[in-house]
Amino acid sequence: MTTINDIAKLAGVSRTTVSRFLNNSGYVGQEASERIAQVINETGYMPSQSAQTLRTKKTGVIGIILPKISTETSSRVVSGINKVMKREGMQILLTDTELDPDKEIEYLRLLKSRQADGIILLATNIGERLQQEIEAFPIPVVALGQNIPGVPSLTYADYDASSDIMHLLIGKGHRKIGFIGVSETDPAVGKLRQTAYTDALKRQNLEVKESWMAEGDFSIDSGYEAMKRIITDNRSDPPDAVFCVTDRMATGAMEYLKEQGFSIPGDVAVAGIGDAVMSRYITPSLTTVNYYNEEAGEAVGEMLLETMAGIKHSKKMMHKYRLIKRDSV
Amino acid sequence: MTTINDIAKLAGVSRTTVSRFLNNSGYVGQEASERIAQVINETGYMPSQSAQTLRTKKTGVIGIILPKISTETSSRVVSGINKVMKREGMQILLTDTELDPDKEIEYLRLLKSRQADGIILLATNIGERLQQEIEAFPIPVVALGQNIPGVPSLTYADYDASSDIMHLLIGKGHRKIGFIGVSETDPAVGKLRQTAYTDALKRQNLEVKESWMAEGDFSIDSGYEAMKRIITDNRSDPPDAVFCVTDRMATGAMEYLKEQGFSIPGDVAVAGIGDAVMSRYITPSLTTVNYYNEEAGEAVGEMLLETMAGIKHSKKMMHKYRLIKRDSV
DNA sequence: AGAAGATGTGTAATCGATTACACATCGTTG
DNA sequence: CAACGATGTGTAATCGATTACACATCTTCT
């Protein structure tokens, strides 16, 4: 590998001058510049990032910790983050916790040792240990999707969006509304959306029936199974609508309903959250909420950049969302 | 940040001993070990990756260059790669060319300067310059999806898979088969799949009709538009089947056909490639080919690992695939 | 008992960049 | 014309790790 010393030698100057040329710092003569530029071009030289980092403490890398790489939400968010980081000439180091909370801490440490300039955390559950770790963390951290105390966080408007869905359902005349959620250890998706569900029912004096509620694990299959449970447990009094906290689970739920000959939304209306691409093309098309994931990615990206620049954040921000009414309700 | 020197001082030994302790190299006494372990625990010390890299030339990072982050295929592949890299304690540095061939070269260089230990390239088009760049490249590179001369490549069985689709279509009695492809600058998706299409028709002495063929750009919308063009240009003699080179475009095509009141597969059969999640849930469910993207990701991952270890590869490998017969044909 | 090997630790060079400081040259100005 | 600022370049320390080499003890074996 060519180093700055090689370039210096070939161009007949000292490595200091080469460095100055590269970084545009200090004066470099016309002639020297040309020779250096030439040599660099010929050799295809690129400065060693590790040497630079060792001196400057800047890696030009930010780390992303996400629960699962291969989901639509993740890849949209990453794409958004990528957009702003590219603009700043920064690279992205991806880590995937596979929904294991311990890994969140592990990767936090790893990114520290890699001296990431900043970290974007898409957490799922927020434990004691995680918070402790972040408290004394030497690297700027921002969070997306969950509100982490002490960390600038951009959250989705889970409560409001869910309320909107519920209103829509209720507005359409549905009174027996079921729910397919996820574990409450997930504050945003598990807890908040469910609270919005029960709150909406209570506000309208509608029944909150345990057997109309089921828990899945984000997968399409788990939505199918959850729907199956709800239907088989309520043969005599099935719900006439189901609010699913993710589009994937909603898709599974619809799949089961269709199999069983229920008409959607005639017999049972279904709504989801997330606006997966698929939701528009299944039949009937799925009523859902779009969270502008890509823009949210850009927004946390900017947020991290600002935090890195020392700008304090008002800690709590909610990203916009949009209710998408389609044919399943 | 605590450094190895701090640890050494606190533990009352030299930094050499600390290093040996950390790397399990050479002898370290019981007592010293304990003191060092203690201090490290107390301080939460992690060695500086950049300093290590500067000395050892190993970053523990591999780069992935992909055409677009936020696609199902990409995220599946990345997930697969991640799986094997995690096993080896390696991190992934993601770069996204946004389908710009120039960026492929740019990122290659960037990953060089970051001293990635290896690179996985998901190229789209393969130009002269790209090949030149790779030829003298100091870092192991492997490719997925496209066969790049001189580079160990794992390709999908595009020709065979497409032929299978065509056989299926023909076997079902279709004789007027249309085609929705992408630009031929993409050797695998654009060229190979189209060749398989025309070859299959010729083999059966079926008509290859220009106006039954249209080009999209991978997007659902472009599939819709392509289908529209084919139908409007052939009012009197529309095809009775369409082979789309991606599921997304097939989805768009179906959307148009449904809108226009064509029954699928009664009036027009549709088939795609890629087995997007959505394909199973749209109506009718889409006949397609599954490329085992995640496994392919694992496979190139292993391939890269081997290449990095100095094992020469038989250059050309084809990944398995599976025809999935559903209701659209 | 003395030699040979095993065990445990330290000294100092090194990786490839950045940067404070010093020095030289040149044009401008009072 | 002496002095000063602008311009252009080099010397050497530094960042935080690894590692070749040297040295000291302690076992063990003949």
From TrEMBL, chains A, B:
Give every HTH cro/C1-type domain span.
3-46
Fetch the Pfam families from UniProt.
Answer: LacI (PF00356), Peripla_BP_3 (PF13377)
Where do the HTH lacI-type domain residues begin and end?
2-56
Under the heading SMART domains, the entry gives:
HTH_LACI
Which keywords accompany this UniProt record?
DNA-binding, Transcription, Transcription regulation
Q: What is this protein called?
A: LacI family transcriptional regulator
Species in which this protein is naturally found: Salimicrobium humidisoli
The beginning of the lineage is: Bacteria, Bacillati, Bacillota, Bacilli, Bacillales
